[in-house]
Amino acid sequence: MGKNIVQKILSSHLVSGRLKAKTEIAIVVDQTLTQDATGTMAYLQFEAMGLPGVKTKLSVSYVDHNMLQAGFENFDDHLFLQSFASKYGIYYSKPGNGICHQVHLERFAVPGGTLLGSDSHTPTCGGLGMLSIGAGGLDVAIAMAGGSFYFSMPEIVLVKLSGALSPWVTAKDVILELLRRLTVKGGVGKIFEYGGEGVKTLTVTERATITNMGAELGALTSIFPSDAQTKKYLKMQGREDVWQPLKASANAQYDETVEIDLSSLEPMVARPHSPDNVCKVREIQGTMVHQVCIGSCTNSSYHDLMVAAAMLKGKKVHPDVSLTISPGSRQVLEMISKNGALTDIIAAGARILDVACGPCIGMGQAPPSGGVTVRTFNRNFEGRSGTLDAKVYLVSPETAVITAIRGVISDPRDYDMPIIIKDPKTFLIDDSMIIPPSENPAQVTIIRGPNIKPLPKKEPMPDTLHGEVLLKLGDNITTDHIMPAGAKVLPLRSNIPAISEFVFEKIDKEFAKRAKEKGGGFLVGGINYGQGSSREHAALAPMYLGVKAVIAKSFARIHRSNLVNFGILPLTFTEENDYLVLDQGDSLELVDIKKQLKPGGILVVHNRTKNKEIKVTHLLSSREIDILFAGGLLNYQAQKN
Ligand code: F3S
């Protein structure tokens, strides 16, 4: 039987296991990436392993999330990251060089390779035929140390594309349509492999928009073939030498097939407060808006900003709208400034922001209270914009621009003339903001400002866990709910004692205080607990506050792994109705854990307050169980060494 693309890459990187769905496998990681919000912690974890340098083919440290240097903390972090990268063999992409995924696609991604990134949108590089997976920082630290990446073998879904996109319909509309059909849970335990005749009509950056937002489906990753479009893109980036063809064998098998006729699609929009709350733009056109933001790792390519410039040329942003534009990379910004497109954007009244994540991670540009903001980003969870009651709509750049001009949500097909953007002959290549590692690492001193605090330690798991339910939560709790981002909190990412004060801040201001007073305890959650970003602080900070176990109806993949990595037991109800038996303040106990905790096993939770017992289970492999008993992945790795 022939192989599909995913099987081909996994086979050539397989270290242990078989490619059988739902069994644990481990692969070699060729490349890693970190960003500043996850990188400092990943590097402290790598340092704790005591190695002289990284063992990957390539590792890159990006600075893109936290660019507001309102205090010393951010610059402290940047100096730490730069000196650490220099000493340990990591490339350092300076602040201002671009968003990790955009720059990695441009300068480093390789078809057929594997990439592990401490950011949930790492699958962006799947647009170039690289198997790219988002994970917690500790998993990335282990990969940098030459360790394998373990995961449950997903099912492989073929997304068969036919036809071609109509004018004003974009790659963003393709992934929004998929989210409409499959929801934010539709990709859990799956990889989406794109194929069919429609694939060749999409450029690499269009493909990258689709694979980027595949993360919102809950998928492990998404991937496109490597074909003539890929070769053309790499040639334009001066990297044609890394191209290799990659396609599924003619008789390749898939677990499932989804078909999309590109020519049947229309401009789509995700309404508040979930990326799968999707409808046609037509259905909500006329909604008044306060703000439009173009950028993020989803939609900030050269093509995206050239479209924006062409639509804005000779026009003005609506008087009641604030339009912001954040280019995805310095390459893009330099090109649009050289060819005059930037002038058209500025003349129309747009505000040019830093080359960074910016408003996508709530670093500035919070909408007004109760405001409406239309964004080309990938997430619209409540509060992520920085304003709790703001309404965030997710759209393509084309829909965003016409909306900014008209002041109300509008269908780009109503724009008054056709726009054609020609590809440049070549991209502007200048890697001077990517600093290679030192040739004399022994002479490099790591710079540690006061914001760089040591890693908190965790003891091995005892045989009995007891404590109160510290908080009971509902469905779809995101990592933003658990560990908020934004200008106040992000600077504390290297300082766990300080950042842990903000855990669940938006849901229950007293949480951190109560957790400390009670000596830790349990959390109870609903469906899809921990969805959203790869933010390991959403496990690390609760661990610091003494959270011992989370009992939920189901978990999002990366967060579940992060809980294990930090020694917190992720348990699921065998009967969902037992959720009703647990309340905040109930005193719980799990005994004989060493005997009870086995792969596929069932544990009994005693609710001492209500004098009831409930049964819980888990998806833990025997390796994960060993990690939990060791008190987390770092302890486990140290024991192994
Ligand atoms: Fe940055 Fe937003 Fe992407 S925070 S990495 S632009 S999802």
From TrEMBL:
Catalytic activity: citrate = D-threo-isocitrate
Domain of life: Bacteria
Pathway where it operates: Carbohydrate metabolism; tricarboxylic acid cycle; isocitrate from oxaloacetate: step 2/2
EC class (word): lyase
Cofactor(s) this protein requires: [4Fe-4S] cluster
Annotated SUPFAM superfamilies: Aconitase iron-sulfur domain (SSF53732), LeuD/IlvD-like (SSF52016)
Assigned keywords, A-Z: Iron, Iron-sulfur, Lyase, Metal-binding
Classification via Gene3D superfamilies: Aconitase, domain 3, Aconitase, domain 4
PROSITE patterns per the UniProt record, alphabetical: ACONITASE_1, ACONITASE_2
Gene Ontology CC, one term: cytosol
Keyword Lyase recorded: yes
GO BP field: tricarboxylic acid cycle
UniProt cross-references to InterPro entries, sorted A to Z: Acnase/IPM_dHydase_lsu_aba_1/3, Acoase/IPM_deHydtase_lsu_aba, Aconitase/3IPM_dehydase_swvl, Aconitase/IPM_isomerase, Aconitase_4Fe-4S_BS, Aconitase_4Fe-4S_dom, Aconitase_put, AconitaseA/IPMdHydase_ssu_swvl
Domain Aconitase/3-isopropylmalate dehydratase large subunit alpha/beta/alpha as annotated: residue spans: 7-407
Residue ranges annotated for the Aconitase A/isopropylmalate dehydratase small subunit swivel domain, each copy included: 513-575
MF annotations from Gene Ontology: 4 iron, 4 sulfur cluster binding; aconitate hydratase activity; metal ion binding
Enzyme Commission identifier(s): 4.2.1.3
NCBIfam families to which the protein is assigned, alphabetical: acon_putative, PRK00402.1, PRK07229.1
Protein name: Aconitate hydratase A
Species annotation: Kuenenia stuttgartiensis
